[in-house]
Amino acid sequence: MLTVFGSIAYDTIRTPTKVVRNALGGAATYAAISASFFVKPGLIGVVGQDFPKSYQNILDRFVDTRGVVHAKGKTFRYDGSYDSTLSLRTTNKTELNVLGDFKPVVPEEYRKSEFVYLANNDPVQNTRIIKEFDNVKFSMCDTIDFWISSKRNDVIKMMGSVDSVVINDEEAKLLTKTHNLIKAAKKIMEWGTKYVIIKKGEHGSLLFYEDTIFPSPAFSMEDIVDPTGAGDSFAGGMIGYLSSKNSTKISTIREAAVYGNIMGSFAVEKYGVYGITGLKRPDIKKRFGRYKKMVHF
Amino acid sequence: MLTVFGSIAYDTIRTPTKVVRNALGGAATYAAISASFFVKPGLIGVVGQDFPKSYQNILDRFVDTRGVVHAKGKTFRYDGSYDSTLSLRTTNKTELNVLGDFKPVVPEEYRKSEFVYLANNDPVQNTRIIKEFDNVKFSMCDTIDFWISSKRNDVIKMMGSVDSVVINDEEAKLLTKTHNLIKAAKKIMEWGTKYVIIKKGEHGSLLFYEDTIFPSPAFSMEDIVDPTGAGDSFAGGMIGYLSSKNSTKISTIREAAVYGNIMGSFAVEKYGVYGITGLKRPDIKKRFGRYKKMVHF
Fold it and tell me: Where does the Carbohydrate kinase PfkB domain lie (chains A, B) (predicted)?
């Protein structure tokens, strides 16, 4: 089984061509829905009383929501704007709301999960919650600049407590204080994790383990609509695929990184979660096949 | 046969750790030496009376220099500084010297070349000189921001007169006025060239033809010493490999793009041309094999 822990949000997304208000969002939402095309993931998170039935229905359609707590107050809100290239995002506002006091607990039914994804949560919380699982075969965490700047030592500790770290290129540089991504990955591995996956947006990803690097270009996209959630969809697709294979063989992990890229490429094709919620499994398989042909030489 | 036309220079390279003055450089120097590991290229260029015997010896060791004119005056000089990440270069000074009045002529012995590489020269000169070849099977040109800013229409005309364009990502965006590299490549192809190769530095390259994209990640490097000439070595390696196969089959062109990446990765390992002049053919073959294993999934 796979468990995903992280934020469920109302997102306001501003691109040069459109503003979408109060869309279903959040790192865990994207990751869990993305993973759901490979396995049915359990989701741990919190929503407020304002969380509408329609969004609850979307979650229920894709994931096991027994771990989603309905708390008094308003759902976490995020508001961000993209620049004209859709590659730089500025945060306009974050309202923690119910997320602020959330004390996540792993439901009994999720404790035996072999695969666990900890999204970009408070690193102290991630480090604590991973210990509540009894049977972890492969754990993965993400982080963001906010935690790197405010709780760097806790981020480092968290990274030593999981099997793999998935992180953006710019955040990997910020965290490790180096410009070279290979040096950055090596440093993160020194902190105790076995695998580092650096996400490079339109340039794909780099998977590091031992002395090996597996670069995987992005599935090239001419029309990007909304990059929100691409990284979370990457992580969800990657660990979802691994979980479906119930394997941590390196050849499977390499394939999983490619599935991560594929899921990220779907995520950016529409606003909000609609790039991935409209998918069928054969769409993913087909794009994986096209990808394989694309990179062949 | 392959002919390379472009600049031969004295380079002053300033990195945060070292300054190298009056090193042998120039786009055509890098491209021709890189290509020489696949075929013996003919070189068209000009040097001044100050060009030392030692540099002439390096050129003679790798290329056919019957097309190199020794003119009255000083050799072309370039002086540039890299930032701390080695990814941004600022031009401190350019002295055209003998390059200013150079009227390139294709030597009789080179006219039958099936493969022609026109480096980042004046686009008007490139468009004129390609017509002096009788038997071209595959021509390729590069350009730089200087020509895009000063002679954009001539750059566009040049691109329509060759089979393929190799260009940096930033320059492709500047030239086509778009941020998306797929849109940029399509626009360049509309101007009449069949293949576009966009070089993305540490992120590798994208080869475009018809409706197809072949992304090829860079051979990942932990220690980059000097990026000077990496793009020219890429282009030289690519067209050198094609010329050695005497083929323009698409499968060969894809392999050639990988060889381009490989040659670029060697170029950055040492200052100046020494990253490639010290190579032996088996080194290249070996790295190509490692690359193939690296990207496999």
Answer: 4-274
**A219: closest CA among A276, A142, A284, A140?**
A284
Alpha-carbon distance A108 to nearest alpha carbon in chain B (angstroms) = 37
C-alpha dihedral, A123 to A129 to A130 to A131, nearest 10°: 120
Delimit the domains of chain A by residue range: 2-295
Cα angle A65, A68, A73; round to 5: 140
Number of helices (H) and strands (E) in chain A: give both, helices first: 11, 13
Classify each residue of A235-245 as buried b or exposed e, where b means 16 or more C-beta atoms within 10 Å of its C-beta.
bbbbbbbbbbe
Is there a contact between B294 and A215 if contact means CB atoms under 8 Å apart? Answer: yes
Joined together, the tokens standing for residue A118 give: 């900890």
User: Helix or strand or coil: residue B207?
Assistant: strand
pLDDT confidence band for A87 (50 / 70 / 90)? confident
| Distance, CA of B266 to CA of B225 (rounded, Å) | 10
Beta strands (DSSP E) in A152-254 are 164-168, 195-199, 205-209, 212-216
Cα distance between residue B159 and residue B153, in whole Å: 10
Strand-pair partners of A25: A9
Indicate the DSSP class of residue B117. Answer: E
* Nearest one of B294, B296, B193, B202 to B253, comparing CA atoms: B193
Do residue B297 and residue A221 have CB atoms under 8 angstroms apart? Answer: no
Share of chain A above pLDDT 90, in %: 98
CA-to-CA separations, B62 to A163, A260, B4, B240, in angstroms, rounded: 49, 44, 13, 12
Enumerate the residues of chain A whose CB falls inside 8 A of the CB of residue B217: 204, 215-217
CATH number 2.40.100.20 is the correct assignment for the domain at A2-295: no
The pLDDT of B152-168, averaged and rounded, is 98
Amino acid found at A271: Y
Structure tokens at A236: 């969800």
